[in-house]
Amino acid sequence: MSTTTKPVNQKAWLLVLPVIICVAFSAILPLMTVVNYSVQDIISPERRVFVGTEWFAAVMRDEDLHAALWRQLTFSFAVLAVEVPLGIALALSMPSQGWKSSAVLVLVALSLLIPWNVVGTIWQIYGRADIGLMGMLLQKMGFDYSYTGNALHAWITVLVMDVWHWTPLVALLCYAGLRSIPDAYYQAARIDGASKFAVFRYIQLPKMRGVLMIAVLLRFMDSFMIYTEPFVLTGGGPGNATTFLSQYLTQKAVGQFDLGPAAAFSLIYFLIILLLCFILYNWMQRVGTQTKEVTS
User: Fold this and answer.
1) Strand pairing class (40-42; 48-50)
2) Could you give the CA distance from residue 138 to residue 146 in angstroms, rounded to a whole number?
3) Which architecture does CATH list for 49-295?
4) From first to last of its 296 residues, what are the pLDDT tens digits of the chain?
């Protein structure tokens, strides 16, 4: 019997070539440059000394880095603890049909259209005690509010600003997940006399697991890399109260021009994000699997 071989068209690689070139110039080459800088002492553009893992060891011993990492972890998990439940509640309260649904979707998404630096400027004015609506209102209510002089006030202001800016993203993702649930599930729940909480617990929440996973990962990665908003609002102050990892890295690379330690720190920063996202992803996968087993 004669065997026939399927022809292979190698010209198809030409369609993928633009993507490969873009990824190479936007990701691979910069990453290779950072790796190169992390093992060298950049004395001048012409003079470089190989130092191996010295910068990595120095960065890991940096107490300011440990403090910035702790602030960053606290901020990121606080963002998830507030924005995810708030986004779910907002999605559940949004109308599902008619012109009201379209109007609410537009209104909810408005804050997502505002650039990051403008968000920081808005809240910088909004929180001022002399001309800002929130600052003046808190002062009249008897609170000695000052995001420029009180570390706790500054930290809470940055958190509230991020919640205002990005909770609509979680709400829109959850809303899309809710709209994808077939109406037959709700009809069966009404026949069984299920309460609203039971419908949410056994129908809506399991069906939103996929979009919730996307929302949690997106918000965690974005909050862990936050830079522009707190930089514009507080400049990292007062003191180092709102100096997160990204701003600490910028101070190393641009402010002090320590390219070697900054490159080593950026690689550690990158690995921390990957590790935490991997842990979150596997945890949510395991929670979803356990939920399916219980409901079945």
Assistant:
1) antiparallel
2) 10
3) Orthogonal Bundle (1.10)
4) 556 666 677 777 788 888 888 877 777 878 888 888 888 877 766 777 787 888 888 888 888 888 888 999 999 999 999 999 999 999 998 887 778 888 888 888 888 888 888 888 899 888 888 888 888 888 888 888 888 888 889 999 999 999 999 999 999 999 988 888 888 888 888 888 888 888 888 888 888 888 888 898 889 988 988 888 888 888 888 888 888 888 888 887 777 777 888 888 888 888 888 888 888 888 877 765 555 554 45
| Cβ atoms of residues 203 and 189 within 8 Å | yes
Pairwise CA distance, residues 237 & 231, whole Å: 9
Looking at this protein, which amino acid is placed at residue 76? Answer: S
Residue 262 burial (CB < 10 Å; 0-12/13-18/19+)?
buried
Contacts of 133 (CB under 8 A, 6+ apart): 126
Residue with tokens 């037959």: 184
Nearest C-alpha neighbor of 93 from the set 106, 78, 109, 105: 105
CA atoms within 13 Å, Cβ hemisphere of 43: 6
Is 103:243 a contact under the CB 8 Å cutoff?
A: no
Task: Sort 239 into a burial class: Cβ within 10 Å, 0-12 / 13-18 / 19+.
Answer: exposed
The pTM of the full predicted model, rounded to 2 decimals, is 0.82
Under 8 Å between Cβ of 98 and 106: no
